[in-house]
Amino acid sequence: MDDWKTRTKLIHSGIRRSQYGEVAEAIFLTQGFVYDSAEQAEARFLEAGPDEFIYARYGNPTVRMFEDRIAALEGAEDAFAAASGMAAVNGALTSMLKAGDHVVSARALFGSCLYILEEVLARYGVEVTFVDGTDLDQWKKAINKNTKAVFFETMSNPTLEVVDLPAVAKLAHRVGAKVIVDNVFATPVFSRALELGADVVVYSATKHIDGQGRALGGVILGTKEFIRKTVEPYMKHTGGSMSPFTAWVMLKGLETLDLRVRAQAASAQAMAEALQWDARLERVIYPGLEQHPQHVLATEMMEKPGTVLSIDIKGGQEAAFRFLNALKIMVISNNLGDAKSIVTHPATTTHQRLPDDQKAALGISPGLVRISLGIEDTEDLIADVKQALDAV
Ligand SMILES: Cc1ncc(COP(=O)(O)O)c(C=O)c1O
């Protein structure tokens, strides 16, 4: 099974069939499990075997199938499925940190990730130093003997900055710090974050893994020791576990993940190329374009540079809003990785909370629009964007 290719793993890894031999994965929609005897209950609480479950917050056969399948895809020893991407980010960080620890994080983060690092961890006595993720000197200066973890999005939301994962991992590992990455934009199909030096990889499964806008979910991947000894006790006792129904939705999502993500990335590349010299745009941000500052690094780190691009429209917010309102196929929303193409105006939605100077420092300008490519026809999508730019 270890030598199966991605698309085979995505269909068959982790399958657990019941006595009925069902083809599609069964949904074990149950909060708990009965024991044959009081002695069996006692023994299971002491140590549950691989096919023994206690309570859905601790684990469930459908959830375990999802964990085993995504772990096989990622090449991780184990995984813990979470109720949302944010439950996964919070679980990965909070389960391993304590007051007095030090964390170094990239500054360019999704708003809720920033909230955990800036507000939650600080409130519990964890010191956090923020750096420009693309500047290795800043990482070098900030990481010290007390640093327990470094955290960053391998490709940042929404400005698609690529962090040099192998180089940052080398600096972190020198002081024994864990490298925890949010790998949503790189996707589990194109990125091998563990091979590049990450110790822990986190995904919002709400994005490409479901990929059809149905459910919230997340997952934390790492060594068996870290997942079962550090993450699991924290998650199962604080309530951030994935529901069995969500796990079933995510299993179905995984079956088509590779096909969808490759189609989306091909459209992203085609759209970036079609728009890169458009005079109505200040810039087109996509790591697959040679003009992207980390194009070479992105090519080394990922098989393809993702399914999202950002454009900065001349004329600021007014022009950006006119563009959004003129689109006929793409929908205005704030998710990404969906089968439907989605456009977002980060400055007034996902990153609204940030003060203007911070937005400016992160490149979240008033004209910036994030485009998450869906699986519609590429030519139709490019035509939709061009007619909306004409309307601006
Ligand atoms: C980079 C990144 N990390 C984490 C999340 C949080 O995921 P979720 O909405 O599933 O909690 C998101 C999106 O919302 C995201 O874009």
Automatic annotation (TrEMBL):
Reaction catalyzed: O-succinyl-L-homoserine + hydrogen sulfide = L-homocysteine + succinate
Superkingdom of this protein's organism: Bacteria
Molecular function per GO: carbon-sulfur lyase activity; pyridoxal phosphate binding; transferase activity, transferring alkyl or aryl (other than methyl) groups
Self-association and partners: Homotetramer.
N6-(pyridoxal phosphate)lysine modifications at: 207
Known pathway: Amino-acid biosynthesis; L-methionine biosynthesis via de novo pathway; L-homocysteine from O-succinyl-L-homoserine: step 1/1
UniProt entry keywords in alphabetical sequence: Amino-acid biosynthesis, Methionine biosynthesis, Pyridoxal phosphate, Transferase
GO cellular component, one term: cytoplasm
Protein EC: 2.5.1.-
One Pfam family of this chain: Cys_Met_Meta_PP
Protein's UniProt name: O-succinylhomoserine sulfhydrylase
Record family assignment: Belongs to the trans-sulfuration enzymes family. MetZ subfamily.
HAMAP family in UniProt: MetZ
Keyword Transferase assigned: yes
GO annotation terms (biological process): 'de novo' L-methionine biosynthetic process; homocysteine biosynthetic process; transsulfuration
Enzyme class of the recorded protein, top EC level: transferase
Organism whose genome encodes this protein: Tropicimonas sediminicola
Lineage of the organism: Bacteria, Pseudomonadati, Pseudomonadota, Alphaproteobacteria, Rhodobacterales
Coiled-coil segments on the chain, per record: none
Cofactors, names only: pyridoxal 5'-phosphate
Purpose of the protein: Catalyzes the formation of L-homocysteine from O-succinyl-L-homoserine (OSHS) and hydrogen sulfide.
